[in-house]
Amino acid sequence: QVQLVESGGGLVQPGGSLRLSCAASGRIFGFAVMGWYRQAPGKKRELVATIITGGITNVADSVKGRFTISRDNAKNTVALQMNSLKPEDTAVYYCYGRGPPFSTDYWGQGTQVTVSS
What is the CA radius of gyration of the chain? Predict the structure, then answer.
């Protein structure tokens, strides 16, 4: 069974930085897509950024220029470097992976990011 485990969330002041990491474990044959989604209280889960095996990224306009996504295909890990954080970035951040069998979607348990002074 494949599991995604996030780490690196926490409380940070506006303008600060955090780095989220996600590691996959279990019977893994590689993820075509890895990424991050977030869900703020009372809102729908939204895409933050995704990255495919070849390195092409898709980044939400709301975080473009502030957040950077990267992955290590050999280790099945994905990271999100978050800079210039704003209070509106406060949310639970979920690691995501799409892989076999049959382009299954896998999700981590989520990690809380709170941006507040």
Answer: 14
